């Protein structure tokens, strides 16, 4: 198997294939990057020969589409968010070792340095706790991250984290 750009410079060995068979078990393709330029060639040992590469074809992977929903805004630092997200059905499955995690943006909605809020179970409402030191702001967002392969959902709608307020006179 070529790389995703069709090069056989460092080919991936897919193992033995029976003569006349045109099927490759999907397990042999797991973990490969998604791409549309893959090609296959066959190496024969008797007689020793290499076929030309096939026409390009694509390898699809699992995908996170859509965005998580967050209910209950505004939230307090250390408070609990109700978060739901459904992983799309159909297409390719995520690896058995995959984890879904919830990530928090900064107060401007940027995920340049996301805060990991922990594991997430798709298809249910999850109680996610905001870190106690979260500063107040109106531009927070969440997203769901998968670990195998690494992908991110679209960002949630904006929500607010209220800064603690104090009233009264210091003594």
Could you explain the architecture of this structure?
The protein has 171 residues and is mainly β. The chain has no helices and 13 strands. The protein has strands spanning 35-38, 43-45, 48-50, 57-59, 69-71, 80-84, 100-104, 115-119, 125-129, 137-140, 142-147, 150-152, 159-161. The strands form five sheets. The chain has a four-stranded antiparallel sheet with strand order 8-7-11-12, with no helix packed on it. The chain has a three-stranded antiparallel sheet with strand order 5-6-9, with no helix packed on it. Strands 1-4 form a two-stranded antiparallel sheet. The model has no long low-confidence stretch (mean pLDDT 88).
Name the overall outline. Answer: elongated
- Give me the side-by-side strand order of the main sheet: 8-7-11-12
User: What structural category characterises the helix and strand content?
Assistant: mainly beta
Which regions contain 5 or more consecutive residues with pLDDT less than 50? none
Number of helices: 0
Mean pLDDT: 88
The share of residues in extended strands comes to 25-35%
**Number of DSSP strands?**
13
- Note the run of SSEs as H and E: EEEEEEEEEEEEE
Main sheet: strands, sense, barrel: 4 strands, antiparallel
Nearest-angstrom radius of gyration? 24 Å
- Helical content stands at under 10%
Report how far apart the termini are: 75 Å
